[in-house]
Amino acid sequence: MENDIKISIRHLYKIFGADPAGALEHVMDGMGKDELMEKHRHVLGLQDINVDMRNGEITVIMGLSGSGKSTLIRHLNRLIEPTAGEVLVDGENVLDYGEKRLRNLRRQDMSMVFQHFALLPHRTVLENTGLAQSVRGDARADYEGEAQKWLDRVGLGGQGHQYPHQLSGGMQQRVGIARALASNSPIMLMDEAFSALDPLIRTDMQDLLLELQGELKKTVVFISHDLDEALKLADHLVILKDGRVVQQGEPQEILLHPNDPYIVDFISDINRARVLRVRSVMEKTDQAPAQAAGDVGPDDTLESVIALSGGDTALCYKVVRDGKQIGTLDMKKLVRALVPTSAAEDGMRARAT
């Protein structure tokens, strides 16, 4: 296994029903989800999941309701036991852990941020933030400073004496994030963590997560059903449908090269100019164009470059990182990248007839 792989999921299956092992044999013989339910009254929750999650990156697992994303994340800390497969953390199979080692995994190695906050109503914000340390047996005097540090970091300085019901939804979720950070675990599991929040608050929380991640480099597994959120947060994107991986990879690559009609439908309404980055459509070269209109960065959005160019498709820009040219961006190529895949395919078919 590569050294930078923190979590590795191998051939993971989950079948719900009275005889999952027996049902697994039918799945291995080629039986699909609908047929398994119709003939054997078992639910195929996950089917042959293979995903590597790199250390210090955000892996977003997304899909529609019923796709298996929440089932998958609960296998990482064995809140759900698989029917078959492996879950490796730092090269160790979590499924081999005894009760004590599994308890340590949940308390020390992984923290979890839930959709509906999961704060204890009878504990103060500070006590909720230090919950992991309290469960480990630490006295309040020992964890108070650490808890207060993370409350300050998420913008809740001075709120430690409050109780959860006295806070807004967005503030309660900030407590949830502070609690996960205060546990000092290298892995954060976030199950639809922002989906219960209003849109503006949700955007603020996404920005906060990216800000903290830029500093802390946790290994984050984030569950979402929202494509805009996934494209904003993900270093690695995994898209599920009916319990199986349809496509996974770098989000920009998936957006430009979807490999399944399901993905094409998924991304059809996305604002490509807002989410695509210069690095995804530039030509990699250190040779400056004959007439450069200026410099742009590899992580600039295409929307920002369009604004900079004033819509002039005749322009070409140098792409510069840390003062060094790494590519060029031709505005005509940028415009072509804005055409959705399905529309581009329709156009090619029309020209061929």
UniProtKB/TrEMBL annotation:
InterPro entries: AAA+_ATPase, ABC_osmolyte_uptake_ATP-bind, ABC_transporter-like_ATP-bd, ABC_transporter-like_CS, Gly-betaine_transp_ATP-bd, P-loop_NTPase
Keywords: ATP-binding, Cell inner membrane, Cell membrane, Membrane, Nucleotide-binding, Transport
GO terms, biological process: amino acid transport; glycine betaine transport; response to osmotic stress
Topology in membrane: Peripheral membrane protein
Protein family: Belongs to the ABC transporter superfamily.
Pfam families: ABC_tran (PF00005)
Protein name (Swiss-Prot/TrEMBL): Quaternary amine transport ATP-binding protein
Assembly and oligomerization: The complex is probably composed of two ATP-binding proteins, two transmembrane proteins and a solute-binding protein.
Principal location class: membrane
GO CC annotations, alphabetized: plasma membrane
SMART domains: AAA (SM00382)
Enzyme class: translocase
Enzyme Commission number: 7.6.2.9
Catalysed reactions, semicolon-separated: a quaternary ammonium(out) + ATP + H2O = a quaternary ammonium(in) + ADP + phosphate + H(+)
Cellular compartment(s): Cell inner membrane
Entry's Gene Ontology molecular function annotations: ABC-type quaternary ammonium compound transporting activity; ATP binding; ATP hydrolysis activity
Domain ABC transporter: 31-267
Record organism: Sediminimonas qiaohouensis
